[in-house]
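--- STAGE predict ---
source: upstream dedup step, 1 unique chain passed
mode: sequence only
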Amino acid sequence: MNPETPASPGKSPPPPMCILLVDDDPINQTVALGLLRRKGFEADSAINGKEALEKLAIKRFDLILMDLQMPELDGFQTATIIRQNESQSPPGTATRETTDAMRETNARHSNHIPIIALTTASAPGTREKCIAAGMDDYLTKPIIPRDLFAAIEKHLGPRKG
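--- STAGE serialize ---
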């Protein structure tokens, strides 16, 4: 098949989902970015919450993977700021959707960006603290690919194609 010829006439594949990884450890970044890109995600990284907020100001991401302990702005502070910014922004769609299927269909047009905490901290209460800061989910490191992709699918829906 000619690489310039689309697979199905008149239809182009959806753009890849875009994920922001916020982690100050270069080894964690390399591993996670490699996993995400091999699965077909567009992936970018930030070394701390301050850099993440700068990237979010210029680009729309579908999901954020957030380390909790970072310099300048930690994951809890960053998630709180993201949620405050979302609440002050006009909605991405004109109508309110009420079913899970409708929410999944319109997830890319909503202001709410799912945030999944990635942390080595598994102390009692950490998950609750993440949820209280506005995060949607919680995974412990080291990253287990099966768990990572299950959490991503939970929040973005199954991958197409």
